[in-house]
Here is the input.
Amino acid sequence: GGGGGGNGYVVIDVNAPSDVVWACLLDFYSYPKIIPTVRDITMYTNTHLRQSYMAESPVEHEDGTAAILKVGVPSVTRASFTLSKFRLKIAAMHKYRPHPKGDYMVFTLDPAMRNFVLRNAKGVWHTQSEPDGKKGTTRVWLLCEVEISPLLPQWITEYAATRAMPRATTWLKPQVETAASLWLKKPRNDN
Here is the structure.
């Protein structure tokens, strides 16, 4: 018992097919380039899922020992991120699952991270294709749940919910729509 918590969600409609959204979300290696709050990232193997990420080994870009990060292929990814100007180190596990009604990816805080301040954090990315019959549109949901130590003032939780979450998603729309326009600009033979 005790302790604060915050729940929040962000919903964004993007002008892009869901495959493009997932190609961006699953491209963890590019996060430092495209997400302003992420300074760097280290990917890890995913062979000791019951233990903390310290039990895994860091992996270089796509050398086959980490999860295959492809749209439509279920994966479990482990990574540590350095966030924001505070150089906060966060390790998380991402479980991506394709689904006929819209793919989803659940991320949870690595066991190594569950400290006295941040007890737990969990989030879900989910996509809906052509919501309300809007052609070429994907609705992207990010839902988050954070459990925080009772020692922390409530305003910190509220700050996290109102500021950090929207910030975690503002990069998505421009990134995904640019990617989509590049995909769609591939040369066609019909004039």
Summary: The CA atoms of residues 109 and 125 lie 15 Å apart. The chain is about 20% helix and 35% strand.
